[in-house]
Design goal:
globular, 328 residues, alpha/beta, D-Maltodextrin-Binding Protein, domain 2, 11 helices
Length: 328
């Protein structure tokens, strides 16, 4: 009997030691993280909103952890190229993906993707949100949203608008605008929003919708004319611009940014990243810098961001169905 009791005690002790060892091993990745340069994949071109935010975050995290954070722009295919690369990367925290509202829209719009936004990634934190600005080439005979609607109704199918590709937030925003204003404009998809803005400036297309930091310099220089913002209310960054909702009641299109990692990335690494990102989003310096690019910092738990992604996919599905949006 004593021998059996001793054996049971030995087994229990061995189990405790094994659990302790496993716990120590699990904590080790975060203790040494980051052990090498970290790549932040951006699913859009340089100078885009996600690119600017990614570089800001990378610079700050690099200072904090004395390790290099490298932005890797992978534009094209509505962000699917960058997302696929990230999904197939080692789940060790050294490859991160900046996701935006486009990722949720693409998931809702396309039936077959090489990755699953929910299953192939683990959320880290919701970072910030931003409205967009609708701009037209100065030659367009429209000084307001009201004028644009009247012009589009008078010339159905003739006005062309550009976007960063099928499933991009500007694409969905423009299609919802068309549906709600009962107008018809031709979608011209580009690899990213930068060439769409360039062609709007040159007059190859008449209109585009873009993030505040990218479009405001061209507005101030007179290269394009701003008609309105996509938020329900006016933005403090351009208080002179009306909200499109003032002319199209109920219209709203808000972009958002967040960070995810490949599925199976150790939870302690995710927690370490989340803690620093929440601190950054809450710092006065970072909030001021984000304000200059038209973004409102958020910073959430990983769980909250995960729920947000699922909610945004469901929301995009409803909008796509109602507006009859189709990929080009």
């Amino acid at each position: 009997m004593k021998t059996m009791q001793a054996l049971q005690i030995f087994k229990c002790a061995a189990g405790v030691l094994a659990a302790t060892a496993l716990s120590a091993q699990a904590a080790e990745p975060a203790k040494n993280y980051p052990a090498k340069p970290v790549r932040i994949i951006i699913m859009s071109s340089p100078a885009s909103g996600p690119d600017i935010l990614g570089r800001m975050i990378g610079s700050k995290l690099g200072e904090i952890w004395s390790q290099q954070f490298v932005v890797d722009n992978r534009a094209g295919a509505s962000g699917n190229i960058g997302a696929e690369i990230a999904a197939n990367s080692a789940p060790d925290g050294h490859t991160l993906l900046m996701v935006t509202s486009q990722a949720a829209i693409v998931t809702a719009m396309f039936d077959k993707l090489s990755y699953n936004l929910v299953k192939d990634f683990v959320p880290i934190s919701y970072l910030a949100s931003t409205p967009f600005i609708m701009v037209v080439n100065p030659s367009v005979q429209a000084a307001s949203i009201k004028d644009l609607i009247a012009l589009a109704k008078a010339r159905p199918g003739e006005l062309k608008y550009g976007s960063g590709g099928s499933g991009s937030p500007p694409h969905l925003a423009a299609e919802v605008f068309k549906a709600m204003s009962v107008t018809d404009m031709l979608h011209v998809p580009y690899k990213s929003v930068s060439p769409a803005l360039t062609d709007t400036i040159s007059g190859q297309i008449q209109m585009t919708i873009s993030v505040v930091p990218m479009v405001m310099p061209t507005v101030k220089s007179g290269k394009v004319r701003a008609l309105g913002v996509t938020s329900q209310q006016r933005t403090p960054l351009a208080p002179e611009l009306p909200a499109i909702a003032e002319f199209v009641p109920g219209f709203e299109a808000i972009g958002w940014y967040g960070l995810v990692a490949p599925a199976k990335t150790p939870p302690d690494i995710v927690a370490k990243l989340n803690a620093e990102l929440v601190k950054l989003m809450g710092s006065a310096d970072f909030r001021e810098r984000l304000a200059t690019m038209g973004a409102t910092p958020t910073g959430t738990s990983a769980q909250e961001f995960g729920k947000h992604i699922v909610s945004e996919i469901d929301k995009a599905r409803r909008i796509i169905k109602t507006a009859g949006v189709k990929p080009d």
